[in-house]
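Retro notes - structure team

What went well: the batch runner handled both jobs without manual restarts.
What didn't: labels got mixed up in the shared folder, which is why I'm recording both outputs here explicitly, each with its sequence directly above its tokens.

Job 1
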Amino acid sequence: MSRHLVHFASALAALMFAMPALAGPGLHLSWDHCAADGRVANKAFACDTNAGSELLVLSFDPPEAKADVSGLELTVHIKSSSASLPEWWRFTAGTCRVTGMSYDLSPAVAGTCEYPLSPNAAGGIGAFQPDWFGPGSLRILALAAVPQADAFAVTPGQDHFAFALVLRRIRTVGSGACGGCSTPVCIGFGHLRLTGTVSGTDIDMYAGGVGLGGSDATVTWQSAFVRDYTSIFERTFEYVSMTCDPDNTVPVRTSTWGAVKSLYR
């Protein structure tokens, strides 16, 4: 082997061994706490109580530094492994679990993640959009913002808290219970926009990945399996592709972007 090949092989081996230790920039999603505290990719709930709640924490490692962030706009995508979205996962007005999901922006949910928001931060869930990217799906729009005077900096190499969703267990069992708690479901942190005080300098981040828990931007409920998850924008419209299987034994299926776009027509 030539000296150049030896050097190339050595560099390649070093890169391969280094890669698992580097999460890299991107969107992160975890149950229970921030991904920096040890990402929890799957949540198995016995569906046997109405008490308590589950916590989904959204965080991000930006691709570049930005010194004037004043707002976070984001989307979360939920896809059932069943043909339709279970009642347990419907939160719009007039549905069975209209108060089943809320949010939390408190520093306590950030853990060891960098918490960039000021005490003056405000925000919330802007909309629940059932069947937005096909039957059995749910799109969630949310945001958090601070006054311009409290604009903050973000830097690569650090996991920053963005938002937390609180999944309440209400109406799981007993009289008036909503069906579908035990159905395997996939959840993805699809898009994050970091808006700033200077016009035209926003940073957009997107997600995708496969596997149990998928990429760092996806988690699962009741051991579902994420396939083919991607969120992209073309001009101002978000296209989402997400295949959610009840487990990893279902044969692989692939989607074309033509098929994905047809869902929105």
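Job 2
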Amino acid sequence: MKSFELIISLIIALSKLAWPALLIIVIFVFKEDIRALLKRLRKGKLLGQELELDPEIQEFQRTTELAEKEVAPPITPAISESVHVEGQASVKIQVPTDTDEVLSLAASSPEVAIIRLSALLERELRLLLGDMGILPGNDRFHPIMATGLLINKGYLPKNTITSLQKFWELRNKLVHGQFPAEKREILAVIDIGLSLLRTLRSIPHEINRVHNPGVAVFEDHLCQRQLTGVVGLVLETQSPGGMEMKKRIFPTTRIGYYQIGRRVAWEWNFNNKWGETWYRDLDTGEPRTAWSSSAEFVGRHIDEL
């Protein structure tokens, strides 16, 4: 029996025996083979046989491949952590990612996998809006609305927009039974959707993290008269290309809220404003201008969006 057939047979056997923990381990071990299997499904071939995918799925595949070419691949290292065994050197192991979770679900329940994938795509859109400062302050969020906002601002390339719209159409039809697809076609949609997720994560944009949550700020250049009810929030900003880092300071009244290292959305309260303000340099202690004029930064922690 060929390797892919062995993998599929093993996964099915384990899922029937209801061994979820062991199933996850097996999926993780064979995830590269499973990715290759899904890629064959995307290309319309499986075990040497030609497969004819639905025209809607073929169009989704075409626009996603074009979208991949429009956006540069992300510069992100594989996630890993060290495991120490007494008497032995620490060994680095790769940590499963959210895409690994989708692959695991796809092996046993493609329908559930596509729902999970749609949640990840929606989440990525929400993060993009947050990072770019255009996420609505209320809870009224919808992927189509998010796509529309990104289109209006010119943040998404043409084919990425089309590919997203195709995915949501297929997802809704599959979930609501309006699209009587075979299992292999659902797997093909999942594989194409994972490529779309990687493309979204490659959209160039600034990322802000908290460097110092509460620097004392002053109304005079000698830093003798401290302002009350407001502090300076120092953010570390990663450039869109990921190659440069810079620090910036903004006023905030959210004292005690921000935590070092956490990523924050680009959000402002323009009803609160401060004129020229000073602070002491974090390294030298010398007085420095914090800002000449600034509204209040109120960005939420990105994982709370």
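One thing worth noting from job 2: DSSP finds nine helices and 13 strands in the chain.
We'll revisit the folder naming next retro.
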